[in-house]
């Protein structure tokens, strides 16, 4: 993995985590936290979306959308666990 790929990976994670933080109210983790939430969300989406038969296409926009969906799922689960 080249430095450009790593930077794109981190940028997609940051944007996805930030968007998920906006969509799920009450979560703001800062830049590093947003990157982590976005990256973990991308892994969750990479597992869940194909199981549901969803394909959002390729490219950066598709990656951001799917990572955001996964990050929202992650933040929702964190919210449910914190309440319990």
What does this structure look like?
The protein has helices spanning 3-23, 30-51, 59-83. It has one domain. It is built from three helices and no strands. With 84 residues, it is mostly helical.
Show unreliable segments.
Answer: none
Task: Tell me the β content.
Answer: under 5%
Q: Please state the structural category.
A: mainly alpha
Largest sheet: none
Mean pLDDT across all residues, rounded? 85
Can you give the helix content as a percent range? over 70%
Give the structure's gist in a few sentences.
By secondary structure, the chain is mainly alpha-helical. Helix content is 81%, strand content 0%.
Relevant terms:
84 residues; mainly alpha
Helices and strands in order, then pairings?
Blueprint: H1 3-23, H2 30-51, H3 59-83
Helix pairs in contact: 1-2, 1-3, 2-3
């Amino acid at each position: 993995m080249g430095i450009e790929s790593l930077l794109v990976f981190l940028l997609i994670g940051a944007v996805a985590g930030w968007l998920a933080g906006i969509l799920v109210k009450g979560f703001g983790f800062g830049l590093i936290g947003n990157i982590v939430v976005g990256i973990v969300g991308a892994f969750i989406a990479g597992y869940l979306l194909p199981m549901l038969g969803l394909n959002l296409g390729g490219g950066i926009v598709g990656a951001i959308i799917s990572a955001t969906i996964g990050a929202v799922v992650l933040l929702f689960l964190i919210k449910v666990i914190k309440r319990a």
